[in-house]
Amino acid sequence: METILCVDDEPTQLMLLRLALVRAGYRVLEASNGQKGVELAVEHKPALIIMDLMMPVMDGATAIWHLKQNDATKHIPILVLSAYTKGDQAKRALNVGAAELVSKSLILTDLIDRVKTYIQ
After folding, report:
1. What is the 8-class DSSP label of residue 96?
2. What is the value of pTM for the model shown?
3. Residue 107's pLDDT is what?
4. CB within 8 Å of 2: residues ≥ 6 apart
5. Kind of pairing, strands 27-31 and 78-82?
6. Of 31, 64, 80, 107, which has the fewest CB atoms closer than 10 Å, so is most exposed?
7. CA 28, 32, 33 angle in degrees (round to 5)?
8. 112: alpha, beta or left, given left = phi > 0 and alpha = psi -120 to 50?
9. Per-residue model confidence (pLDDT) at position 31
10. pLDDT tens-digit map of 17-45
11. How many CA atoms does the CB half-sphere of 57 hold within 13 Å?
């Protein structure tokens, strides 16, 4: 069973992601900020990371930068799931190594399809 790390500071968003991903057959780890996300990624080396951009402690783009600098995690694809898919933070996330930006308004079944393209 593949593991996916979800990093978001909104508990409801994490719950929705967890329910959809578990139903699709994945193991889910959760972090509420970028720093905790980096720590969990280094420890567990998930198959995919779904990252929000705007979070306390460490924002998503900074977390992505740290993950892509680390030999243990630089190969992990990172899907940015954010309400802000345009603008400076979104550009920064792509520039430091995010695989794709996806709007939080995306239907969860479509998100699962995207997840499968990175894991299979």
Report:
1. H
2. 0.93
3. 78
4. 26, 27, 46, 47, 48, 119
5. unpaired
6. 107
7. 120
8. alpha
9. 97
10. 999 999 999 999 999 999 999 999 999 99
11. 14
Catalogue all structural domains in the chain, each as residue range(s) with its CATH number. 3-82+98-119 (3.40.50.2300)
Could you give the maximum distance between any two Cα atoms of the chain, in Å? 35
Q: Identity (one letter) of the amino acid at 75?
A: H
> Measured between alpha carbons, how far is 101 from 114 in angstroms, rounded to an integer?
11
CB 37 within 8 A of CB 49: yes
Number of H helices, E strands in the chain: 5, 5
Residue for token pair 């905790």: 36
- Residue listed under structure tokens 């995010």: 98
HSE of 35, CA atoms in CB hemisphere, 13 A: 3
Kindly report the average pLDDT of the chain as a whole number: 92
Contact yes or no for 46/3 (Cβ under 8 A): yes
Using DSSP's 3-state secondary structure scheme, residue 36 falls into helix
